[in-house]
Amino acid sequence: MPASSRSSSAVADGRELPRTLLVDNYDSYTFNLLQLLTQKAKQHYGIEDADNDFVRQKLMVIRNDQYPWHVVRDRILPHVDCIVISPGPGSPDRQADFGVCTELIRNAEQAKPVLGVCLGHQGIALAFGARIRRCATPVHGQLCPIEILSDDTGRPGLFDGIESGFRAVRYHSLTVSDDGFPHHELQVLARAAGSIHAFSEHCGRFQVPTNEIMALKHRDRPLYGVQFHPESICSEYGARIIDNFVAITHDYARRSDFVAHNSGYASRIPPEIAAMSLLALDDRTWHCDPSSPPPLSQSSLPGGCGRFALVAESVDLAIPGGMDAAELGDQLQALLYGNDAMPLWLDSAKSDTPGGAVSIMASGCGTATVRYQLSGRQVSVVAFGADDGGCGPESIYSARLPDRDALGNPVSFWTWMQDVYDQTLISPSDAQSLRFQCGWIGYFAYEMKNECVGMATNCEAFGSHAGVQQEPGQRMPDAQLTFVDRCVVLELGREPPRATVLALAAHGECRRAAPAHSWLASLGFGSRSLAATWVREQSCKIRAWLAGPRPAGTHVSAHPLGESSEQMLRLRPVLSRDEYLDAIGRAKQQILQGESYEICLTNQFRATLSDSQAIKTSTQMRRHYINMRRRNPAPYGALLWYSDIAAGIASCSPERFLSIEQCGPDDRRVEMKPIKGTTRRRPRPAIGPCSEHTHGDHSAVCAECLRQWEIDDSRRASELEMDVKERAENLMIVDLVRHDLNSVSNGNPESIPRGVYSGAIGYLSAHGAADFSVVIRTAVVDHCGTRVSVGAGGALTTLSDPKAEWAEVETKLYTIAPSLSPTLPV
Ligand SMILES: C=C(O[C@@H]1C=C(C(=O)O)C=C[C@H]1O)C(=O)O
Ligand SMILES: NC(=O)CC[C@H](N)C(=O)O
Prior knowledge:
Blueprint: E1 20-24, H1 30-45, H2 52-58, E2 59-63, H3 69-76, E3 82-85, H4 95-98, H5 101-106, E4 114-117, H6 119-127, E5 132-148, E6 166-176, E7 186-192, E8 195-200, E9 204-209, E10 213-218, E11 223-226, H7 238-255, H8 258-261, H9 271-274, E12 308-316, H10 325-337, E13 343-347, E14 358-363, E15 368-373, E16 378-384, E17 393-400, H11 413-422, E18 439-444, H12 449-453, E19 479-484, E20 486-491, E21 498-506, H13 528-547, E22 572-573, H14 577-592, E23 599-608, H15 618-631, E24 636-642, E25 647-653, E26 656-664, E27 667-673, H16 703-722, H17 724-742, E28 760-765, E29 770-774, E30 778-782, E31 787-796, H18 802-814
Parallel strand pairs: 1-2, 1-3, 3-4, 4-11
Antiparallel strand pairs: 5-6, 5-7, 7-10, 8-9, 10-11, 12-21, 13-14, 13-24, 14-20, 15-16, 15-19, 16-17, 18-19, 18-28, 20-21, 22-23, 23-31, 24-25, 25-30, 26-27, 26-29, 28-29, 30-31
Helix pairs in contact: 1-7, 1-17, 14-18
The structure holds the ligand C=C(O[C@@H]1C=C(C(=O)O)C=C[C@H]1O)C(=O)O and glutamine (GLN).
């Protein structure tokens, strides 16, 4: 039965789910609470699949400052039955942190059941005279037993059916004080038990007992607070607590004359009110202007018929003896693009990549690259000539993005690019079973997050004084995406490995030019036969190479970045060790004040290259990349070179940012796979004789050395796995990613301007899939080939030991620039 046809008193008799207002205090976990509430709704009505319309009739989400209090009170509150107040940064006594939540709690006339989580819980306590103080030991991402105190009222309670001692995750620096607690108005329902981990620079890690207030309720009004996070992935009984809150709401509705007083009471939120919810915004139009009404969507996904059609041919590759899969990728890329002026290579140099290693080889020559500069909102499209014609650039489009489109919708680079991307989709009937099928290859710099959530670039936080800002003009664009209309995709995970040559031809029936982006009409192969010819030529080249004699070994000599004598790159930290340690101190201070759960602090290491050292060509850049890749083969390798600005990226990232897989016409799988916790590994023993174990074979690894190395390696792995700080960091990032996937991705919670480092590199395939890595372990060349920058950093919590954090930065740097930290112990 649709929710709308239920009887108006259904809430009171328990058959109907209450309509819930979730107030977001700008927290990283709010959408995990929404997920709990949505799951409850789906279970209740037996709805399996996401039904957004249904959810929007039952749940609405607003930001704490989205509407003035009188609007919330007069327009929204009459249409909801209960309120959930989210966690959040800061303190509930600050209007800027808590917004309308204070009034929502105090509002006695229109009293509705309230569940406050963490900041929300603290806000309830504060409203009735309790004091909020700093915790003696802040707790972020630790599981803690919760002791339930008796609450025997004979009516539904928040912890009904839950055993005392259940374990829940805590993320807080502030707490409700026992000193001066207003026992006449509020009742403590639960306390922390056991002990938690702490860190001090004098004592290192240690454990302290904990017994802070973990839950409370108002004695007369239906106001409940929990200090822990029921929505965390590791909390027990999260769903049960929500069930109990629903039962409390039903009970309240039954006992009060609430239903009678709400004439016209209906079981769903009316559409005009639901339109005020954040859920009414979709990801195309997600923006950060809380005062304006939700914009209209103008989705323009093409129906079935794409502008381009795909032509493809596959070649099975027998791996030549003595060559591993990664080397095969290197050689094939050298064969096809080794002398290319603008190589674009997304390279799985490690065959255990989730989903099977795939290398994508393409060029920016003979096609167009979209560039975006955040400052000035400038989009430009540059077309490059074919490689043999010198690959000369020509500007074919340039515009400042308007703030709004003709319909009044906000315009961002994302909405602009979405329109362009939609016009390059291929017909589903053309799609192959390949992860990349032509499309767009490039990167988004870290600051592109400002383009989605409207955050100001936070240059001040931790170290702009030390020169973190960059000079305009010379630096890399904030985003570059090259339209790849021809490429070779190498699937290394297959047996035998397979290379597929792909090209986009103009689609016969759908040739009309799109008015907004007529420049797209000039791209791709004009006809299927031209595309087919190119595909054939490339396949023949690969077959001939397989059949013919190949040069032994690889074709480039080793000059590891920063290590070679000819190419002595003196990378210098932007923040010195002492400055970085200070910045760690300031970051930890922010966490102690309740402003953040976890901060990913980063530093940059830079070298200015003299004219003779400058990296001016793709060949030079390729050499650096190959050396990095040899030292540190990674699932997400990348080599991108932009010849006209002599700028490029060499990346050996181990970390997936986000992938979208097309599983069926309406079935897409989204994955984020963050890494937290990094440790140094000893190098794997090399092939050859070993003096220690009288192993003299030149063609094998010493078995004893290998055995010892394996033991050492798994010891390091399990130490990392069991470490309480690393586990907390992981838990936090998992909860954060769940929140992001439940809403829209809002970037990671880090805060220094970083450029390409910490951004994302990857592809948007023409069949609707995407895969992006997190840009770490990466060298960026800009300033016309005269500057190299490498970023490195790590996640910080209150358990972080500053010196260990600096060592972690050195470890990360060492993987790509070994000369910097030659004294590091192995
Ligand atoms: C910031 C970096 O890494 C981030 C932090 C990590 C950590 O704390 O272990 C691991 C991977 C990254 O998401 C970096 O490597 O520079
Ligand atoms: N998770 C939260 O809501 C945290 C609340 C508050 N900022 C604190 O640190 O205690």
